[in-house]
Each structure stands twice: as C-alpha cells, then as structure tokens.
Amino acid sequence: MKVLKKIFGFRESTILLVILAFAVILSISRPPFLSAVNLFGILYSISVNSIIIGAMTVLFVSGGFDMSVGSILGLSGIIVGTLMVGGMPIVPAILITVALGIVMGAVQGFFISYLTINPFIVTLAGWFVYGALIFIVGKGSNINGFPKSFNLISFYKVAKVPVIIIFAMVTIIIFEVLLRKNFFFRSAFYIGGNENAAELVGISVKKIKLVLYTLTGATSAIAGIFLTSRFMAAYNVAGSENAFQIITAVIIGGASLKGGRGSVLGSFLGLIFVALIYDALVLYNINIQWNKFFIGVILIVLVLIDEKVGRRTAMMRG
Amino acid sequence: MKINFRKALVSREFFLFALIIILAVFMYFKTDTFFTLANIKSMTLIISVNSIIAAAMTVLFISGGFDLSSGSVMAFLGVMIGIFISSGINFIIVIIIVLALGTAIGSSIGFVVTKGGVNPFIATLGAMFMFQSLAFVIGLASPKMVAVGIPTFSFFDSPITKIAGGALFGIENSFYYMLAILIIFSVLIVKNRFFRQSYYIGGNEDASRLLGIKVDRIKIFNYALVSFMVAFATILKASRFEQTSASWGESLGLEVVAAVIIGGASLKGGEGSIIGSFLGIVLLTLIFNIIVLLGKNPLYYEFSVGIILLATAVLNDYVKKVYKNRRIIKSI
Residue B314: its chain A contacts at CB < 8 A? Predict the structure, then answer.
C-alpha cells in the first residue's frame, strides 16, 4: 500500500479515477468500447505518443516548451521512408533518421538555450519549418513500398506483446525513474523553479536545456519511425495532431507551463484520457473535428484551474 | 516632429523598404509576369487584408501580448458570414454580428489571459484549435455549403460585395481601408494616451500597475482589437471574393506574428512599429508571390516564413541585447 502511495500522488490518483469513471460510462453506453479491436487501437495510438511524452514532461518541468514534435515525427517518417524506398537497408535508415531527429531537436535547443529566444517562437518556427520539409522532401506524396521486415519493428511479438507497446512502456518507466532518482533530470525542477538560482548553485542550465530539447527531438524521430512501421506507410499528415495531444496530456498530468512541476506517470495517464476522448467521439459517431475543439477547451480550462486552485499537484518527489 | 535622418537610415523600416525594392527589381528582370496589373492587384489585396490585422497585432505585441489564433478566427468568421449571407440575412446586420463576434472572441481570450492568468501562447493555441474545428464542424453542418469536403459558401449578387468589391482610381477598395487604418493606428500609438500606455505595460508590467495604469483593461482591449480587425479583414475578403471558406487563414496566424516581429516588435513587449509590421506583410507577400511565380513548391513559403521568423527573433531579442550591453559597458 505504501509503495502505491509513493508512486501515485494526489494528481495521478485523481486522473486515474476520472479515467476509470469515463471508461465505465463508455463501456455501459457503448459496449463496442470493450472490444479487443477498440482497446488495442487505443493502446497503439497511446504507444506512439508515450515515446515522446517522457521527454516532453521533463522539458516542461524545466520550464521549456516544444510545439515541433509533431512535425519532427512526420518528417522522420518521410525520411526513413525515402531512404528505405531508395534502397537503404533498415538499420542504417533508422540510425540516420534518429540522428537527424537529434539534430533537429538540438538546433532548437541551441536557439532557446544559448540565444535565449522564447521557446514558443523557436518551436513554432520549428513546427512550420520541419512541417514544410515534410512536403518538400516527400514531394507531397505518401510513401509506400517498405520492405516487409520493417513492420517487425513495431509488431515483433515478445511474449505475445508487440515491441511497440513494450518500447513505449519501458520509455515511460525509464523517464519516470530518471525524474525521481537521477540528479541530471531532477535539476530540471530547479531550473523550472528559478533558473537564475539554479545557475548560481552550479547547475549547468544551458547545457541541460539543450539536452532536453535534443531528447524531445530524438524521441519524436523514434516515434515517427514506429508509426511508419505500424502503418507500413509514411503519411504527409502524420504528426499534425500529436504536439497538441501530448502538450495537453502533460498539463493534465500536472505539469505547469512555468515549470517546477510535472510527473511522467501523470502525463501518461493524461495521454490515456485524451485517447479516451477521441475514442468516445468515434463511438458516439460525432464528427472527429470536434476532437480539436474539446482538447482545446480542456487545455484552457485545465490551465485556468491550475492557476487558480491547484497547488497539491505533481511537486518534486523522491 | 523632428526627423533624425541618420537614425532613419539605419532603422528597421528603411532596411525592410530597401529589401522590398531589391526583391521587386530582381523580379522585374527575372519574369514578365511580376509587374502585370493582375499580379500587383492580387498582391495589394492580400497585403491590405493582412496589414489590417498586423496593425492591431503590433499594438498587442507592444503591450506584451501574443495571439496565434487570427487564422482560425478568420476561418470561423468566414464560415459564419457564408452561412448568414446565404441564408438571406441583410448584409448590414451580418457585418454588425460578425464584428461583434470578433470583439467577443478577442475579449474572451484577453480575459482568459489577464484575469485567468493563462499563458497567451497556450490560450491562443487552444483558441486556434477550437475555432479551426468549429469552422469545419459548423460549415459542414450547414445546408448552404457548396464545395465538397471543405465548407465553402458563395454568394454572388449580394450587396455585401459593394464594401470591398470596387476599385477607386484603379486601386482596390481594400487598399484604402488599410491605408486609413495604418494612418489612424500610427497616430494613435504616438499621440493617444490610452494607446501609449501599451508601451509602459510591455516595458514593465508590474511598474505600470503600480503607476495606476489599468493593465488588465488595456490588454483585454488589445486582444479584442486584434480579433475585431480579423473580423473586419474577413468581411473585406468575403466581400471581394464573393465567397468564404473554412480553409481561409491557414498560415495567417504565423504570417502576422512573423510580420510584426520582422517589423521590429520584441516578444518581451515594449517595442513595435506599425509601419514596420506593414512592411513585414509586404515582404512576406512578396516572397510568396516570388515562390509562386518562379514555380517552386508553395510549401517553401511556410519554410521561409519560419526561418525568417527565427532569424528576426534572434536579431530583435539576442543581437540587439548583446549590442546594447556592449555599448553600456563601453560607455562606463
């Protein structure tokens, strides 16, 4: 019991309850919710975002912000696709794509950390620049014709569980543990709390921030590769909604935009919540466009509530 | 009003003006399609519509605000115009409703940012997604829709086209509206006490509050002003094209923000130039025109805007700061 209390703080417990309530309502009113197809669909879509959300949570804790993850995700899909269709074997193609993802994240990190440009503007520019590159590199068409073995990246089953799900869960656990135990990651709390003070205590703020943005870029690239592997195609529109979903999930999970607060577990639960909303729209046959609307409303309302009420949220825990 | 010519020469506005001239000259020699009446006219229209929004956005930036939602609000209001006009509602009533809607949207955003304490980036990002989806959902639900997929509405023969449909001395009506707004805003931001307070707020918000400046009220006004101008610009566009579509304003949010920053505004507030933002819009429109006329992929435009936005932000916020610090240190 005590172990559970240590893992599940106040915020996480609240979200978990809401999710369970939501799931119960959905199961009763729309039984197809409990079907294997539906549940696995939710699980797969969460998997892709889960890869990124750990890095994003740590970034938020440090006071950072990254809107470009969706574009990097989509662009990585196009890159890995173009490389493999062009004849490159799977492993080098993946390595190059991840390397490029690291570069894309690092470039943004440089502008934000060393040139002190507002992260909203830098990642906004990144969103558009990398997003445009999707069409420039991919020449507007979706990419098909991958070698069959590429699909195994996602779906190779280890003890009947597909790799993609294992990878996502492991990533979440790793980031949660790192955020609690590792000094480098925990310094994100100090940076988010008071950046100048952190600098004065000897924390290499600039270096850490650069690394965090590089991490979001790298995980976005990995997620993009997994997504492409899942569908065996690289789509132009891949990644356009991910940034928004992930950011909302992280805030649901207790992170504040000002930094100093955040929990990977909470973000993961937030992701489940966001996925449930999307699923509910499908089950109730409501136009998918409403998805953006609801997520937007939830985002604003949550931040409002956080500003006005919540202090017992995901503070730094050991 | 004394004009220091030396300072004017190294000003941002002059630099942009020179850049625009250089690009125009380049295009004159490169293609014969650039200096045609049709091309200039279409550019003038886009510049007019966007500059109207950029002018209000400049004031908002000066006060330290930020708004990404202009494009989606335009799409949403466009759909509303389409539905109302197609349903036969008197065009004057439609104009009043749309302007009121714009003001309401802006005020709400302003309220959420000031009284609610929500970060303007998040607030306007959320608003952007909300209105984007609303535009599509409401548009698709309307029986008056004409095109397939993306909700579009046409209304030929409606008197609303008189608003911006005509041309005076061969130049589009929209241009004169823009000119009037630019002049009015430029004068207001210098002479009018209410508008000037935005500079103080942007410079140091807490100090302004202590000085008795009604910070929240002014900021809410600025947000409302931006969305009001978006409504106005949407009406002009609808009037000129005799149709509206939910796909309008796709990259508008980014464009206007980029133009205002190109024009010299700082993200931290306290700085900004109406004329600079106007020139920023002209520059961006010119770049788009060049990309299209030279036959390149239109996506290069979004790419370029992103790069230019980044470069200019670095220039405004980093280079200037370093330069200023060096001058301070040297003068000690």
Answer: 111, 115, 117
